[in-house]
Design goal:
Blueprint lengths: L43 E2 L12 H15 L6 H5 L4 E6 L4 E6 L3 E3 L6 E5 L2 E12 L11 H13 L4 E13 L5 E11 L3 E12 L2 E10 L8 H13 L1 E2 L4
Antiparallel strand pairs: 1-2, 2-3, 3-11, 4-5, 5-6, 6-10, 7-8, 8-9, 9-10
Length: 246
């Protein structure tokens, strides 16, 4: 569990108790409809190209895109902008009991400690990883509220070698499609080894297992994370959910 588990080690240690100064954002009820296609041998279900926003805002996104094109003209809608409409595929692991969306161009790789890991084909430092491990809790609420967990998460980041700063951007909570309690966090980490990066993390407990999602993406001053890519990464985070294990 070397590559991301240390960021959520606090979830498995009930001896840590401190309050957090970070406010909790309003609870979100985020739901996505599963695709009807079946999984292939790698566990990836091919889906239609999705707009890189939350599914409930799909109509608004395309309406806004149409307005931009109609006002600015076809020359504004460049190939670079079109390339940012990233195709997402649904990945499911029925044995471990989770599912999420991943960019279709990202590559699945083997990594010690990771249940599954996907890397950006153009920059390996950008990755999406999931760790599943046994737990003594049936829901995250038994451990603490999102504010409490966020505080511990940032403390763990700041204790890492090379970390210069870590700062929370947002904290939220939602119910998954199976009714599981999901905590979501967005924060930044600046370190001497990886530079400035944006991290999107989600966690839930289900069937006496702890499920941890970690999305790490470069956010340097030379190449900052733009709004379009951030919306895509948020959609990946929001798609992380439990499924019935086989």
């Amino acid at each position: 569990m070397a590559f991301i588990s240390s960021q959520f080690l606090v979830l498995q240690n009930h001896s840590l108790f401190l309050s957090s100064p970070y406010p909790i954002l309003p609870r979100q009820q985020l739901h996505s409809s599963p695709n009807s296609a079946s999984a292939n041998s790698s566990g990836v279900i091919k889906s239609k190209k999705l707009p890189i926003i939350h599914v409930e805002r799909r109509g608004f996104s395309f309406s806004l895109l149409g307005l931009i094109i109609s006002v600015a003209g076809p020359f504004f809608f460049s190939e670079a902008l079109a390339a940012q409409l990233v195709e997402l595929d649904r990945y499911g692991d029925s044995k471990q009991g989770f599912t999420l969306l991943v960019p279709s161009s990202w590559i699945k790789v083997d990594k010690a400690g990771a249940t599954v890991l996907f890397e950006d084909s153009s920059k390996k430092a950008n990755n999406i990883g999931v760790v599943v491990s046994p737990a003594r809790i049936s829901s995250l609420g038994e451990f603490g509220d999102p504010q409490f967990v966020a505080d511990k998460l940032i403390q763990a980041e700041r204790r890492k070698d090379g970390t210069k700063e870590a700062e929370v951007i947002s904290i939220s909570e939602r119910k998954g499609d199976n009714g599981v309690q999901v905590y979501e966090f967005e924060y930044t980490v600046d370190s001497t080894r990886g530079g400035l990066k944006r991290v999107f993390s989600a966690a839930f407990a289900h069937s006496m297992k702890l499920y941890l999602l970690n999305i790490s993406y470069s956010d340097s001053s030379e190449n900052p994370l733009d709004v379009t890519k951030r919306e895509m990464l948020l959609q990946v985070m929001h798609s992380f959910d439990a499924v019935s294990a086989s």
